[in-house]
Each structure stands twice: as structure tokens, then as C-alpha cells.
Amino acid sequence: MLLASASPRAEDTTTYPLYAGFALGFASAGSSCNYYSYNCDGTDTTFKIYAGKRLHENLGVEIAYHDLGKLRDKDFYSSTTAESDGINLSLLGIIPVSDQGYFYGKAGYMWWDAEYSNSNNTITRDESGDEFTYGIGFAFTVNPDYDFRMEIERLNEFGDDFTHGGAEVLVLYFAGNVNFN
């Protein structure tokens, strides 16, 4: 009878906490509608509430509610306003720099709703959709309980009711989150 000896395997005991945070930022809608002599670069303040879980040193998952504020598209005769919000689910690719911070890229999908109103004819329309999103950012770890983040996200395409051909939304966020150990 042959006896085999087993050595205990070293296990990774690193656990990554759940986290939740709040972000405040600036949204800007742009499109190629300059061809039609329109001003389609509406901007407004925006916020998001998010929660997530770092699954591994280099991978995380995050869900967020975005309120994109009011964005305006003005032409010579009227102004179209879009108020929109949505839920975004993203995967994060994480590159640790040190114990003090990390870079991350994110790719996800957003389910959004928008309400459009036009100053010329006072007609209000609702639209909803879903689109691919992506972004990059840096998180500065204050201590094991708090992170500060700065990130840029691109939320693709409002529909044709905002501007002919749709318009992407680019958001710059400044955020803070609490880690729950």
C-alpha cells in the first residue's frame, strides 16, 4: 500500500469588500448635428449612486443609477430639452498601482428613460432604450474604509427625439465610496 503525503496549499485570504458611493459630475451631450447648424452640445450637472463588489484583484462588478440632468439642443426656432436617467451594470478591469490606489476601465450596459419637450410646440415625448457604456477612472484609497474616485464615462446615444441621428453623453464624475468590510 502506498501512502501519499499531502502538503497544505497556501490559500489567498484576501477578501474584497462590498462598496457603495455617490458621484457628482458634469454631463455633456454631443452629436454630429453641426451639419444642420444646430447647437447640440447641451451640458448640465449630473449625479449617480452606485454599489459594487471587487471580485478579484483585477476584476469588479458595479451597478449604478444615473440622473443625467437636463440637456438642451437649440436651433434657430426652438429648443429641445431631454431629462434622462437610467440603470447601468458594468464590469471593471482593475490595475492596482499601490496600496494607495488603482486605475480601472469599465464596460457595461445602460437601460435609460428620457423625457423630451420642445419649446416650439410644447409636445412632450417619452423614450426608453438600452445602450453600451464604457469609461476609465482612478481610485485613491484613503484607508481601508474609503475611496475617492475620478472617472469619465461615455453613455451612448440618446434617440432621434433629442437630435437627428442621436447624441452620445460624456460624463465626468468626482466620487467617494464607503467600503463595507
Helix-strand blueprint:
Layout: E1 18-30, E2 43-56, E3 59-74, E4 79-98, E5 101-118, E6 124-143, E7 146-158, E8 167-180
Antiparallel strand pairs: 1-2, 1-8, 2-3, 3-4, 4-5, 5-6, 6-7, 7-8
Summarize the structure.
With 181 residues, the chain is an all-beta fold.
Give me some keywords for this one:
disordered N terminus, 8-stranded antiparallel β-barrel, 181 residues, mainly beta, Porin
Task: Summarize the structure in words.
This protein has 181 residues and is mainly β. It has one domain (18-159): Porin. The chain has no helices and 8 strands. Strands 1-2-3-4-5-6-7-8 form an 8-stranded antiparallel beta barrel.
Report how far the terminal alpha carbons are from each other: 48 Å
Average pLDDT score: 80
- What would the CATH topology be? Porin
Taken in chain order, the helices and strands follow as EEEEEEEE
CATH architecture: Beta Barrel
Total strand segments? 8
In total, how many domains does the architecture comprise?
1
- Biggest sheet record: 8 strands, antiparallel, barrel
Strand order of the largest sheet: 1-2-3-4-5-6-7-8
Radius of gyration: 21 Å
- Sequence stretches where pLDDT stays below 50 over 5 or more residues: 1-12, 32-39
Binned, the helix content reads under 10%
**Shape type:** elongated
Total helical elements: 0
Structural class: mainly beta
Beta-strand residue percentage: over 45%
CATH class call: Mainly Beta
